[in-house]
Amino acid sequence: MNARAEALAAHKRQDPLVKLYEDAWARVVAEQEKLAGDPIRTARLDRLLTMRTTIEAEMDRLDARTLRWFDAGMGIDPYLSGWMMTATPSEPVNRRAAMRLANDLFHDLLESTNYVRRDTRRFIQEAARIAAQSTVVENTAQQAAREMVRDLIDNHGIRAIRYANGTRHTLADYADMVIRTKSGKAFNLGSLDGAPDVEWWQCFDGNCGWTAHDDINLANWLIVTRDEARAYPLAHPRCRRAFGPLPQITSANQAKKAQAPKK
Q1: Which end of the chain has the least Cβ crowding within 10 Å, N or C?
Q2: What does the CA dihedral 214, 215, 217, 222 come to, rounded to 10 degrees?
Q3: Is residue 156 a contact partner of residue 163, using CB atoms and an 8 Å limit?
Q4: Considering Cα of 228, then 229, then 233, then 239, what sign does the dihedral take?
């Protein structure tokens, strides 16, 4: 199996952990939808507090299942196969580096559930405030409650992460991104460190640029040095980049001649 095929296979094996977060997020959304489907009760604080308790319990359950998943080793060997499949004299160093990346991933996933908890509290506070105001005028209370819930869900709903560009992403989407990104990076760095005597590597990519997705210097089939590959193990989140060793190339001149012409 070539490097690109191995990378794609590693990504596919991530699905069980991603599914944990997708399922948890579906239950969070279901809790929000209960409010929209029961507008009279949404004006009651006890209904809002019940939603908060339910979501808090869901996040606790998700954290525990994620920890068990990591403890079982399922999130280490398959994802970081580049580190584990290439035994070298420096393997202990590689293993420590792999564990650091795995720990980063685990802490990011825990932080994502903390975001959901914090967003839930803000959601409840705002919903309770608007619900209290909506009961001032009795004949509009039901309609006001319905509009309040829909507005909160559509425009201020519970989310996991706010990205630097201001967009807000769900728990499921964020978990998928961070799992695929960090495991992909670990796989590529492990592959590079697993063949310390190989200086030149070929990049396998889709339509990504070398340094970023929109870089005009396309990455696919590009021949680069180990240091260059380590500098850009991925071009962007969820990048499917992989590297293959070229032990037959020993100089920049050979690399230039071997480089496929750009189309």
Answers
A1: C
A2: -80
A3: no
A4: positive
**Six token digits for residue 249:** 């190339």
- 227 φ, ψ to 5°? -65, -40
Contacts of 31 (CB under 8 A, 6+ apart): 51, 54, 55
Calculate the CA 111 to chain-centre distance: 12
- CB count within 10 Å of CB 50 equals 14
pLDDT at 155 over 60: yes
What does 143-160 look like in DSSP terms, one character per residue? HHHHHHHHHHHHHH---S
pTM of the model as a whole? 0.75
Q: Across the chain, where does the E strand assignment appear?
A: 161-162, 168-169, 200-204, 223-225, 242-245
Q: Give the closest residue to 79 by CA, choosing from 112, 113, 111, 109.
A: 109
For residues 154 and 233, the model is more confident at: 233
Q: Smallest Cα–Cα separation from 189: which of 234, 159, 152, 146?
A: 234
Structure-derived torsion over alpha carbons of residues 43, 44, 48, 53, reported in degrees to the nearest 10: -170
DSSP annotation of 218 reads: B
Q: Which of 125, 20, 118 is nearest to 69 (CA)?
A: 20
Compute the average pLDDT of residues 67-89: 51
Give the pLDDT confidence of 164-208 residue by residue, as tens digits: 787 888 898 999 888 888 878 888 887 888 888 999 999 999 889
Rounded CA-CA distance 160/123 in Å is 13
Q: At residue 244, what are phi and psi to the nearest 5 degrees?
A: -120, 135
